[in-house]
Amino acid sequence: MKTCLITGITGQDGAYLAKLLLGKGYRVVGLLRRSASSDVIGERLRWLGIYDDVELMDGDLTDISSVLRIVQAVKPDEIYNLAAQSFVASSWNQPLLTGQVTGLGVVNVLEAVRLLELPSRIYHASSSEMFGLIQHPIQSEKTPFYPRSPYAAAKLYAHWMTVNYRESFGLHASSGILFNHESPLRGIEFVTRKITDGVARIKLGLAKELPLGNLEAKRDWGHARDYVQAMWMMLQQDVPDDYVIATGRTTSIRDFCRLAFGHVGLNYEDHVVTDPKFFRPAEVDVLHGDASKAKKALGWEPTVSLEKLVIEMVEADITRHQLKLRA
Ligand code: NDP
Ligand code: GDP
Hints:
The protein is α/β, with parallel strands linked by helices. The chain has 2 domains: 3-181 and 221-245, Rossmann fold; 187-219 and 250-285 and 305-326, UDP-galactose 4-epimerase, domain 1 (Alpha-Beta Complex), CATH 3.90.25. The protein contains 12 helices and 13 strands. The chain is globular, with a radius of gyration of 19 Å.
């Protein structure tokens, strides 16, 4: 039986990845940071029905002693470093914390494996936000980076440290440059989930309006369930490497609204209002990925269309509000 350690196990990707790896027969251990809200912290794992199947160990990614202790005790075959301050908008409000968790955090993982001389394979969660002010209309592993937020700058540091430890110390460390991926378990502050939750509340008569920021930005959105599959595939390769994971289709926030409201027979123009509070100090106008390397080397391809993703998210949010669920 293989053992994996997931940092960020309570987040969207951590929950889907834990489910995938449990299904493959892994012992799944998660790093859980202490919270005063421990009763709600495992909601995503509960939503997927796996809360009792994973082992949660107390620690924080920024605390090297806890990372070292857990890695030494668990001796994982595979480590997935997903923990981060992951919300771009908050990274302008908390730039130093974002640097510590999203940037420096992975170095604690890399150092733990190096110092303990373990053969653990490491996956690091890089991000398409590193492309920022895009230098090429379609972004691949070869496209130069131009980060546009403290979050993206922190991810860029973490990305290069992962590459550096691979090249310097021979660690089996891979970095997945994942484009935006969503699901019913996406954090409520991200635009897709904010929209599908808004659609559900408006449809059920719980709200009338949905305040949003820049509707013209475009993202390449996939389903998180597909994307965690790619993370696992990267660690099954003999040689570690970096891969772009994307659908190759880009859509505006406006068109996402059109699809989500349209699914319940509403016109987004009747409900979406612009609130400047949601504009960002610097915007990433468009992201559009080229995942052909992952397709060729890993055999990875997305399986869920944007239309199906939107329907799954809207329906899940309607169910949540009808049943007054928390997640
Ligand atoms: P989430 O925000 O849903 O999850 C983040 C996780 O990190 C949570 O489990 C959170 O714990 C944990 N965490 C935050 N700070 C710490 C800390 N100091 N110590 C330990 N754990 C911590 O993110 P996603 O699941 O959406 O994303 C997973 C990773 O992939 C992130 O690194 C993200 O930046 C990156 N990424 C995501 C993309 C996407 O579209 N989803 C695209 C590209 C990259 P808690 O529950 O306690 O808050
Ligand atoms: P990001 O790509 O990681 O920043 O993911 P988000 O879902 O947070 O944002 C995607 C895009 O949606 C960005 O270009 C935002 O400016 C835009 N956007 C427009 N309105 C909103 C909003 O109300 N909330 C969020 N989170 N983003 C918004």
